[in-house]
């Protein structure tokens, strides 16, 4: 997605440890027209694939998923919570994930009443680095017996192993911008 790549080059900042900071438009402050284009692109890439719900993980995936949902006929958006809450009750689907940027392990959780047998779940998130968040979300859908429609990622760090790990599961993965190389002063995108 050329528009996204140009925005990353214009406003993204590379930090030590292969961290790409895109907080001015994607995951702290959100550029709504850009997110709308991202949602439209996910809808284009998954055209013809049944999608009854979108699943993401808190917090930065929520805005992306919510706007993308409009392009899939206003399907419901579910997000996995990273912390235990008194509001969670009933049967809970859980998976353990380790955040690359935070270096923290979370037990992500979704109430099972929101992910059901017969659902076709599209998983969306902002970044793919080591793949732990996506693999955890895939586990939640599998625990529920629902169908995984695919996974959509805004920015994939193609030089890390997350994309390969997800692709090895057989789940369709669509990334809008894949970074092949990253250094302190440059980014190289895959074609």
Verbal overview:
It is a single chain. The mean pLDDT is 93. The protein has helices at residues 2-11, 32-45, 60-70, 132-144, 162-168; strands spanning 13-15, 19-21, 53-57, 77-80, 92-98, 105-111, 120-128, 147-157, 173-183, 186-189. The strands form three sheets. A six-stranded mixed beta sheet has the order 4-3-7-8-9-10, with helices on both faces. Strands 1-2 form a two-stranded antiparallel ribbon. The radius of gyration is 16 Å and the shape is globular. The protein has five helices and ten strands. The N and C termini lie close together (10 Å). The longest helix is centred in the first third of the chain and has 14 residues, at 32-45. It has 191 residues and is α/β, with parallel strands linked by helices. Helices cover 29% and strands 34% of the residues.
């Amino acid at each position: 997605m050329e528009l996204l790549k140009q925005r990353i080059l214009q406003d993204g900042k590379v930090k030590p440890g292969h961290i790409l900071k895109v907080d001015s438009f994607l995951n702290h402050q959100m550029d709504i027209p850009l997110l709308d284009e991202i949602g439209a692109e996910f809808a284009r890439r998954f055209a013809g694939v049944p999608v009854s719900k979108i699943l993401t993980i808190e917090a930065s995936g929520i805005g992306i998923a919510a706007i993308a949902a409009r392009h899939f006929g206003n399907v419901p958006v579910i997000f996995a919570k990273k912390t235990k809450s008194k509001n969670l009750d009933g049967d809970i689907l859980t998976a353990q994930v380790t955040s690359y940027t935070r270096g923290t392990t979370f037990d992500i959780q979704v109430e099972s009443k929101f992910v059901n047998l017969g659902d076709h779940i599209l998983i969306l998130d902002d970044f793919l680095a080591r793949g732990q968040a996506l693999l955890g979300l895939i586990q939640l859908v599998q625990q529920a017996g629902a169908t995984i429609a695919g996974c959509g990622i805004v920015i994939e760090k193609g030089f890390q192993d997350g994309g390969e790990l997800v692709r090895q599961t057989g789940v369709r993965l669509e990334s809008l911008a894949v970074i092949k190389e990253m250094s302190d002063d440059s980014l190289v995108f895959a074609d």
